[in-house]
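Quick one, T. Sequence first:
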Amino acid sequence: MRAAFSFLKKLKKNNNRDWFQAHKEEYNLAKEEFESFIRTVIQKAGKYDPDIKALDAGKTIFRIYRDIRFSKDKTPYKTHFAASFQKDGKKTGYPGYYIHLEPGNSFVGGGIWQPDPEFTAKIRQEIDYCREEFLDIINNKNFQSHFGGLDMKDFSLKRMPKGYEADHPLGEFIKLNSWLADRAYSDEEVYSEDFLNKVVSDIKTLKPFMNFLTRALLP
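Structure tokens:
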């Protein structure tokens, strides 16, 4: 990821259209490096998750252009590369894996972010009905060593949703409006030879969690 990070560091200091256009060739090389990485991740991780093995890597990658129409920040470009892949491709509403590479802020994770009310209700119901299975997944030693549990900090309601008792034994998970797990990586780890294998291992570890969430949403 050295070419990608080298470009992103320069872009952060020169986030304007003139500079970007003058360095378009460097951007294309950086993007190709990232896309090649994602392609290999899908190929290797597809052995553990058949839902992603046929995905086109190019279609999983987010555009670098920012939507600035309703933002106070008018810088035109993102300073990271990111990809999301899930059952039936990006933007299907199903849980997905996410890879975010950015100097000083890289992470890999998976789950579902702020699903619509229907999907939210189904996931909460699945957690309620399958309590032991859910706890076995997120308390698994391997899951904990990779992710340390779910991201509870920014996605919890102040009150229990309607229909659930206030002292529900899994209330902290029922109150979530997003169910996510992620793992941070330093720049040195991203540069390392075993980074690819670590990412594939992350996805393999996430698979039972993803299965649980996806099952809740299927007809």
